[in-house]
């Protein structure tokens, strides 16, 4: 009897593993790219997220962010935060714009913002990734206060302009997706358009070290509690009559300057900005392994930067 029970348990476990490997856990299309032009597009459904900004959801998110998320983040990585005094120059809602190379970027921004600002911050998230299943959509909405945005064009489920008008700050990653090698990709104009259209300032944020801590393809940070730098810059405001096309390069340049400052010192970075010689943050024109190797260089400690500045 005991032998038969053990054999039954093993057979059952094997069957469960086989079913799990073949089960569709998400709704992402399984059509080969070569056949996509011949497939009738599926009608998209919009996942509602307004409930995630109700008082009850805000209270739950406060516990999750200040408790579990913040504790896990600081246990796995060592956030080195600077420039928070720049946020004191805000007098209303703002767009928070950062470079994007890791899934750590969103929790890093949320867990380093002042509490009052964090509670009123929503995050634009890719609809085809975070909102492809109900459980992933629900989890990201309640924990990070996300709303879906189409990366390849289309409508937003919750207009970021409406959120800004209601007094919410909105986190946007203008690259549209995570960098494949840790270097900054070209910024799209969505953030600049929102800033110009709704007359709100843009807070640039430079995040350095998150790719080394949790690169694309990993589901958890690397061991060793690596240092990740998060640097906030002074708010940028569109000039009178300035178009989104003209404003977008200024946003990209501000984030690049913050990353340059993180690599050297504030004084050296400011001098390069004034002289128009800030180094490109798109990385060297080299093989991918070399780009990855350079982007994963250890973060220079803050104390070392202060000594260099003196």
Automatic annotation (TrEMBL):
Residues 94-210 form the Phospholipid/glycerol acyltransferase domain. Pfam families: Acyltransferase. InterPro entries: Plipid/glycerol_acylTrfase (IPR002123). Keywords: Acyltransferase, Transferase. Residues 273-295 are annotated as: Disordered. Transmembrane segments: none annotated. The keyword Protein transport does not apply. One of its GO terms (molecular function) is 1-acylglycerol-3-phosphate O-acyltransferase activity. The keyword Cytoplasm does not apply. GO terms for biological process: phosphatidic acid biosynthetic process. This is 1-acyl-sn-glycerol-3-phosphate acyltransferase. The lineage of its organism: Bacteria, Bacillati, Actinomycetota, Actinomycetes, Propionibacteriales.
